[in-house]
Amino acid sequence: MQSHFHQVKCVRIFYALLVSTLIMEPTTQAFCQTTITSINPSTMKVGHPPTSSIQVYGTNFADPQSIWVDCTQLPQPLEIETDTNGKNYVDIPPKTFTSDQFKTARSIPITPTACTKDVPPANAQMITVVANPAFSETAPAVEALLGVVVSAASSTNPGAEFLGLGVADIGIGSGYPNILNTKAGQVWLSGQLGLKGMAQPGAVSGAASSGYYASAANATPDKIVQSFDASLHLGVQLHSKWTLPSTLNTGTSTAGDDESNYLTLSFIAGGGAVTPLSVSQSSPQVFEATPLILQNETPYLVSPTTSFAPSCFANPTQTPTCYVIFTPSDRTHFYRSYDAGFRLKLYGKDFTDKMLRFPGIIDLTVGQNEYVTGGQLHGTVLHVAGSGPIPQIDGFYIFGSMDMGLSTQNGGGPQLQLIPAPITTGLTAASPGVYTILTKQPNRDRYMFGFGLDVIHLISSMSSKNKNSTSP
């Protein structure tokens, strides 16, 4: 064996997920009169052979058969070809690469010399093709958001609450999970379950001693509390996906990557329920029974009648003898809703994880909602909602929604003068002469917005990074 040869083993192939580039290590000399100038890789899938060929560009291809792949001579003769720019290349067919190569490695060495396991020439020129993980045209079926939600309703100041929400969007049928294969008629099952925020009646605080005017429904002003929210919808896709310019992508694309996003339109129908997770009122404010209250309101469960005592009407504006508290009516079930309408879904791309992101969703529906229409299913409620990933910020989502009653009716009854009882009286809800007036759920438009981190995606990304860092 010649002295300039020495015993070496074949190049060890390192497995590393999430790499999509070409590593070129040319030397000043070429072997077999061949100089490799570049490689144009086609789609090379991790865990699979490539689906199409790889073009090895070079000059002076005196013997293209001398090109070796992963220290294995190519099994069939290669032909020198010329592309439209007049550059010569050798086309390496897909069947040259085995599944095992892509299961254990993504770096496939290509050299234009007799790369044996014993003695590769010292001046051998080597180019390593780092297999580009195939971009998966699938999107996560679920996300779990932790964050903050700001909720409000008409006549209610906004308030922030904890957000803990699970969201699912699952296709049913042969096209799913590849979004490119979904067509008109594709069925989708979607839903959400978790903690948000909502407005509910609470005790009056800080009322001026001179009183103020409000309807009975507004006598117990709303406050934002933690709520439990659940919904389920069934959708039917109305067409194949549309292709849009890059909008919601994250990560860094490489040459040849398709950065376009996908848009689908579906008809959806479903329903849901929401309920507060705290008591509505613990210590209601005591008010004087003014003439307006005595004339327009009826006390609750006063024995033997359901009216104010005659003594309450004797000079009530001078020295009140009767007082009232306003308490929200009790409920036996959650606030229910149902709706139907249209849903747009926009799929961005995650070039780090080589897959689509959980879609951005825009809903436009009409239906009925007990929370919005006074605790009963009547009238028409418009629901507009949107959520989506933040472009170039991996794992973070923003969202917002609005429920608006379309009825022309407004207000919660006549305006009452509400004068808090003096503190010196020491009156409570249980004191004699204090009557209870039950208030109904008011008509309330509502809205919310917020942001959250998808913890499922975060854990998956961290797990992938840990596996890559420990791979040989």
Can you describe this structure?
The chain has 472 residues and is mainly β. The chain has two domains: 22-130, Immunoglobulin-like (Sandwich); 142-470. The protein is 6% helix and 40% strand. It is built from three helices and 27 strands. The strands form six sheets. The chain has a ten-stranded antiparallel barrel. The radius of gyration is 35 Å and the shape is elongated. 33% of the residues are buried.
Q: Quick one: biggest sheet?
A: 10 strands, antiparallel, barrel
Strand content: 35-45%
Kindly give the count of domains.
2
First CA to last CA: what distance? 32 Å
List how many beta strands DSSP finds.
Answer: 27
- Based on secondary structure, the structural category is mainly beta
Q: Share of helix among residues?
A: under 10%
Mean model confidence by pLDDT: 75
| Number of alpha- plus pi-helical segments | 3
Question: Reading side by side through the largest sheet, how are the strands ordered?
Answer: 10-11-12-14-16-19-22-23-24-27
The SSE string, one letter per element, is EEEEEEEHEEEEEEEEEEHEEEEEEEEEEH
Taking pLDDT < 50 over at least 5 consecutive residues as the criterion, the unreliable ranges are 1-34, 42-49, 102-106, 114-125, 205-209, 468-472
Gyration radius, in Å: 35 Å
Instruction: Based on Cα principal axes, name the global outline.
Output: elongated
